[in-house]
Amino acid sequence: MKTPILETERLLLRPLSPADAPAVFACAGDERVTRYMSYKRHETTADTLEWLQSLDNDSGTSYDFGFIEKASGELIGVGGLYWEAEKQQWRLGYYLRHDRWHRGFATEAALKIVQFAKETLHETRIGSCHAVENPRSGQVIRNCGLVFTGYGTYEKLDGSERFRCKEYLWTKTGEELTHHKGTQVLHTDRLVLRRFCETDAADIFAWAANPAVTRYVSYQTHRSIADSEKILQFWLDGYKREDNYNWAITFDGKKVVGQISVTEHDGVWDAGMGWQIDKPYWNRGYMTEAARAVFEYLFCEVCFHRIYSGHDTRNPASGKVMQKLGMAPEGIARQHYYKPGFGTGDAQKYGILKEDWLDNRR
């Protein structure tokens, strides 16, 4: 279909034409505007005119809009959708005249373009990116509902410069944002994290029967091996689902000294974590080491967007692990925990985004 005319509260978005060359050059000829764009700055209006004449508004593979400010009648920006065949998705792009920055025009125009892609083109995937050094553009992209998926790179079309970028994606169902792979074996310098197996009951009982270990976990201290066998069977049954994440913490793949697991998740967005380790291994960095491996797997392989956890405020040692992982405090939930025989406890909440995790490990 042809590039249509779209309207927002303050803007008209219409097809570009060669007559727009002087107004577009006011943007495309400004180094402040083009600094992080894929094409180099236009030297003259002739460069801009040549680009405008190359546009094909009937191709169906790109939709280029001029942003017309209603109040002044001036063209103040350009943006649109561009088909990426290799990814089978549309890419959102935009730029704005410098004197109209920081006034919400970019978000207003981009939101309308994304709405056009969803409702008129019935598209299911929209991507975009911005240079790491240009974080304000990321806020516009997030305002349009796109989600950070990772880091990448892009070049100026003439190959003169390469930028590290943050990549974003919107999908209609959200399902493509995560890739569930289940509990896979993970290795660290000192540990092997694996699935629980049928012979692990005795090892579980060794720490689950210790009140010091179970004081702040959800289950009661195990009184017999039968209690450990029961919870082990529950964990084994969980492995039938590919979205189940529950690791036995071992040193050599054999004796189990603790557990780390995703205690809850919504399937596509965030995951709640919990962990425990036998008392002889406290304060030796093992829990942090195990959690780092699991976080890396959940963020970079499964592609969860956010991981959260919490601890009883009377158990600050668990909070130290969360802090070492780069998790940020997110407030206190009063009387969040209840355990028969121990009463209620306040929960200090922590969370970390995939974006923060990748930034912290650089």
TrEMBL record:
<protein>
    <submittedName>
        <fullName>GNAT family N-acetyltransferase</fullName>
    </submittedName>
</protein>
<dbReference type="GO" id="GO:0016747">
    <property type="term" value="F:acyltransferase activity, transferring groups other than amino-acyl groups"/>
</dbReference>
<dbReference type="InterPro" id="IPR000182">
    <property type="entry name" value="GNAT_dom"/>
</dbReference>
<dbReference type="Pfam" id="PF13302">
    <property type="entry name" value="Acetyltransf_3"/>
</dbReference>
<feature type="domain" description="N-acetyltransferase">
    <location>
        <begin position="191"/>
        <end position="359"/>
    </location>
</feature>
<dbReference type="InterPro" id="IPR051531">
    <property type="entry name" value="N-acetyltransferase"/>
</dbReference>
<feature type="domain" description="N-acetyltransferase">
    <location>
        <begin position="11"/>
        <end position="175"/>
    </location>
</feature>
<dbReference type="InterPro" id="IPR016181">
    <property type="entry name" value="Acyl_CoA_acyltransferase"/>
</dbReference>
